[in-house]
Amino acid sequence: MAKSILITGATSGFGSACAEIFACNKWNVILTGRRKKRLENLEKKLGNFSSIYTSQLDVRNSNEVENLITDLPQEFRDIDVLVNNAGLALGLEPAVDASLDDWEVMVDTNIKGVLYCTKAVLPGMVKRNRGHIINVGSTAGNWPYPGGNVYGATKSFVQQFSRNLRTDLLGTKVRVTNIEPGMAETEFSLVRFKGDKKKAEKVYENADLLQPEDVAEIIYWVVNTPERVNINTLEVMATCQAWGPLQVHQS
Predict the structure, then answer these.
(1) Is 151 among the catalytic positions?
(2) Most buried of 29, 42, 130, 166, CB within 10 angstroms?
């Protein structure tokens, strides 16, 4: 019997790459995102490999999340893996100049979205005594950078939430992993800079950065380790990226 995986934010980047690798390995794949046309295209592309179920979903809406889980067809209902991938960064201004609206969108998506999806799926996993929650965090949750203010804070939340979930699930066979990618060549910067393509491309210029399929392959490996193995946290950067020096302001 095929296993089932739910991937949020599946319409681009890590989510889309995860959809492809799991579908090609015959998993039942549930794909969610806000862009309906992209979901339809993914279903057409991957439907020849496995069973695909798509649902237009805003993870910030708890009712939508609950309805998604309640309305799943029978073959998809026993969710073995949840990939909490939906998330975003908005703006790169220092805190004093940042938009409060942008901060609220990041909190609602990166924190509340993870909470809503986890809360909806977790009872079934505990009842069946199997399952794996994969949270997509970020190196920004570990290491600060100028302009990363609320985005980095939301990813720190995801890291600590993942750890506390592991603590609460001790004694069950439900696993939790926080994947923490560094810079990756996705639509991340295009979203951060609100569609400014030139600004976004500048971020990736002359750098051999992580690709979506790199992270998808890591997630696939983590999920397929033996049941006795729990990868708590996995931080990954491109070879061309490293930690910056401590800054000193000399006036």
Answers:
(1) yes
(2) 29
